[in-house]
Amino acid sequence: MAPVAQADDDPVDAGKCQVIKFCVGVGVGDETRGSGGQAGGSAGSSSDSDSKPKCDYTKMEPKPPSEHPAWKGKDPAKYDMYFMGCSDGGLNNPDGFIIVPEGQPPVPQVEPQELAQRAVDSMTLLGPDIANPRAAGKYTVGVPMWMWVNQSATTYGPNTASASAGGITVTATAKVSKIVWAMGDGDSVTCNGPGTPYTASQGMAESPTCGHVYSKTSASAQNGKFPVTATSTWTINWQGGGQAGQLTEVRQTEIQVAVGEIQVVR
């Protein structure tokens, strides 16, 4: 096996092996595969979907000299170097070198946004914990209804979690940014907060933050109740791996609400 030949940005001819990064198998023949050569065997690929890049990992044997910049200061006596070549079948063809402790398999490269999603998945985000209206309550046409939710890490936030892989750690923080209430009578109400709890001292006042007034009864609705759906939008900010971004998750909770009217006897 010939020594490693290093190339600049443009391909160069290294015997029978044209390389982009560097070629290990100089003169091994036309079967040399891609820019990684065939030094050592492929360590396999990592992809569960055709939409994600498929990556091959080629172990560099013999190891490049210790002064090679790809080692990034690591000791070749204690670490192995792999060449990673990826393709999604289109123009996304990332490649580069991976340094791992000697004897360990290469760690598939993970995008920070993918780790952010893993962190979110570990949070167990739920739909709104509706405090009012209550399924067992009875409400009246023309009387202001106050809507509010209980706040917890899983139903309103903030909720923080981290995920790590390949030497990268991403931390994500999720919080509900709005709740859209579909009232079952054809109307919807968007509330940008958890709502204000009602107290008896409020009398017939309307909620200052999140409320609704029914103009008809639920008598003609299925089971005599309106289906009320509260849909929360979770806004998740994440950072890590030298990147930052935002994700969105949506959760729902549904209850049944009975709305009647006051009968006036004359």
What does this protein structure show overall?
With 266 residues, the chain is mostly beta strands. The chain folds into 2 domains: 5-107, no CATH class; 113-260, Immunoglobulin-like, CATH 2.60.40. Helix content is 4%, strand content 41%. It has 1 helix and 18 strands. It has one helix at residues 112-121, and strands at residues 5-6, 12-14, 17-19, 22-23, 42-45, 54-59, 79-87, 95-101, 129-132, 138-140, 145-146, 148-150, 159-165, 168-182, 188-191, 211-212, 226-240, 243-260. The strands form 6 sheets. Strands 10, 13, 14, 15, 17 and 18 form a 6-stranded mixed sheet that branches. The chain has a 4-stranded antiparallel sheet with strand order 5-6-7-8, with no helix packed on it. A two-stranded antiparallel ribbon has the order 1-4. A hairpin with a 2-residue loop joins strand 17 and strand 18 (243-260). The longest helix is centred in the middle third of the chain and has 10 residues, at 112-121. The protein is rod-shaped, with a radius of gyration of 30 Å. It starts with a strand and ends in a 6-residue tail after the last strand.
